[in-house]
From TrEMBL:
Domain of life of the organism encoding this protein: Bacteria
Keywords assigned: RNA-binding
Protein name (Swiss-Prot/TrEMBL): RNA-binding protein YhbY
Origin species: Stenotrophomonas nitritireducens
Keyword RNA-binding among record annotations: yes
Amino acid sequence: MSIVLTPAQNRFLRGMAHDLKALLQIGGKGVTPAFLAELDEVLERHELIKVKVAAEDREARDVMVGELVDASGSALIQRIGHVAVLYRPAREKRQIVLPRG
């Protein structure tokens, strides 16, 4: 299940993410089931998060970010260097109201 966002919604979320600090960091072990469980919990609580990926190789970072997006059902809003911004609306209490497409 992939989230499809309009360019205006993507721009809105990038603006909201600008001042955020990275809440999660992927270490040398890569994407583990425990990390995915934590990612799911943090996305449910915050909806919009930054994740720092500590892989040196650009292709390895791309693969890890792709795994995160696929496993969490989130949308990749932006990726700059080692930091990816992910968005997934909360199932229970939505905090972020997106502009209309």
